[in-house]
Known about the structure:
With 209 residues, this protein is α+β, with helices and mostly antiparallel strands. The protein folds into two domains: 7-53, no CATH class; 95-208, CATH 2.40.50.140. It has six helices and twelve strands. The protein is extended. The two termini are 28 Å apart.
Amino acid sequence: xxxxxxxxxxxCRPKVFRGELQLNGTQATHCYFNPPIPEFIDSxxxxxxxxxxxxxxxxxxxxxxxxxxxxxRNRHTIxxxxxxxxxxxxxxxxxxxxxxxxxxxxxxxxxxSCNDCSLRVLEDIDHPNRYTCRTHRTHATCKHTYxxxxxxxxxxxxxFFTFFLDAGNAIVGHTCKELVTxxxxxxxxxxxxxVQAIEGQRIYCRSTT
Length: 209
């Protein structure tokens, strides 16, 4: 079937579910592909004008068990990604390859997080070893979580990437817990040399919208 394909749906019942508008079918609901109505011609013309001015990103939703292939699935440059509204690509894995040009030293590189989630905890200054998460209960301990910000470049443009959790562990080569509790880098505003050393590193990035 020639693109674009226009689908007209009749006799639906609108409903809001989890904050998003949905259409529920009824016994009278019918679907019409490319219906022979004036609105169809108008929609096709508008779509083609938008497509020619700003073509959509090529998307492949089929995952591969071969990681060599998976690394290049939905591979786009940063320049391409920043010029599109990624809200239109829900649950799509995008990949790119870039170089870390700089690690921001003017902001915290880790934070203390809840043991049950990744939210930042509040530390009770009057009661040592008491950390409170706004979602979960008070804990006697907390986790240390990466949150360092970087400037990356893939030769098309630069962008700010912030690395958390496993992504930070993989790039730095050490866990945040190790750096804070074993190596003694316990000041979030003082960037450890081992984190600074990732500048110039070529990285493979994968993000899900």
